[in-house]
Specification:
The chain is α+β, with helices and mostly antiparallel strands. It is built from twelve helices and five strands. Helix 1 runs parallel beside helix 5.
């Protein structure tokens, strides 16, 4: 909910945004306000988290594997970019609640949310608690929801540097569908990233069809007897099970089968494949090292 996985900012960009935020009295300091710290402590992270939908929708055994591994997985200490993302979300939340002013990095987002809620019959809910339609025992948190009798509009702040699309973004869809009412006719999902807003709008018939697919995927992921692992770039990107996952390891070492020959004898395609996966390989080896030496 506070996008702790958004760690794709480079350090230079992190420092630039920190400098902007430090100019704003509402964002000074590294610690969020006490009420946010308490709320974070009380959060029950959903097993099928909307923010991780690419993982559990494409790799049904991922959640079961993670639960079986338990304490073998090193704790996620978070990067400086993730901490900055939390800080920016906190600043934006307080601004929308009238408890402070936005900083430069959140001004466009705050203005967009306020404009979206300008209609007389609109209700704006900041940090909305959203029941998950596929598992009512758990819930997620949407950055901002603007709702009328016939529409639901979910607006999500993204602070990472990698562009995020709104179309077919099931994280936002899960939030929007969970906030729907019997009178809802359309759902709009908007990503605000930098000074740009990208939206995706669908009607209830389309939403029901998508929800049916997501529901089936979620039930498979929550079933402890479903253990099939399907490695993919999207599913594995933020998965903490990588050092232990046979499917991921098998996929990763496909490019190493002929590395017993000198590098200059490798085809251009093989060299390009290995180079394209340099970051992934390095991160995996680092994760394995961390896992081994943490025990």
């Amino acid at each position: 909910p506070y996008h702790l996985i958004e760690s794709n900012l480079n350090e230079k960009k992190v420092d630039q945004i920190k400098n902007m935020c430090n100019m704003c009295p509402q964002a000074r300091g590294n610690e969020p306000p006490a009420n946010q710290i308490e709320k974070t402590k009380n959060m029950k992270h959903a097993r099928c988290s909307p923010s991780n939908y690419k993982r559990w929708m494409t790799c049904p055994g991922a959640i079961t594997l993670q639960e079986k591994l338990g304490n073998l997985i090193p704790p996620d200490e978070g990067s400086s970019a993730a901490q900055l993302g939390t800080q920016l979300h906190s600043t934006a939340e307080r601004s929308l609640k009238g408890e402070g002013e936005p900083c430069e990095a959140t001004q466009f987002y705050v203005d967009y949310c306020q404009a979206a809620a300008a209609a007389d019959d609109a209700e704006m809910i900041v940090e909305a608690v959203v029941p998950l339609f596929f598992n009512r025992a758990e819930h997620g948190y949407a950055d901002c929801v603007v709702r009328t009798d016939t529409t639901v509009h979910v607006i999500d702040l993204k602070t990472g540097s990698i562009p995020v699309d709104a179309v077919n973004n099931y994280q936002l869809f899960i939030y929007a569908y969970g906030m729907g009412q019997t009178s809802t006719e359309t759902f709009t999902m908007t990503i605000v990233q930098g000074d740009e807003a990208k939206s995706w709008t669908i009607d209830t018939h389309q939403a029901d069809a998508i929800a049916s697919v997501i529901g089936v995927k979620a039930q498979a992921a929550l079933n402890p007897y479903v253990t099939k692992l399907e490695a993919s770039d999207e599913a594995c990107m933020w998965c903490p099970c990588k050092p232990f996952c046979k499917s991921y390891t098998a996929k990763l070492i496909e490019g190493f089968k002929d590395l017993t020959v000198p590098v200059e004898k490798l085809s251009d395609e093989k060299q390009a494949h290995l180079f394209a996966h340099k970051s992934q390989i390095t991160k995996t080896l680092t994760a394995i090292e961390s896992s081994l030496f943490s025990r």
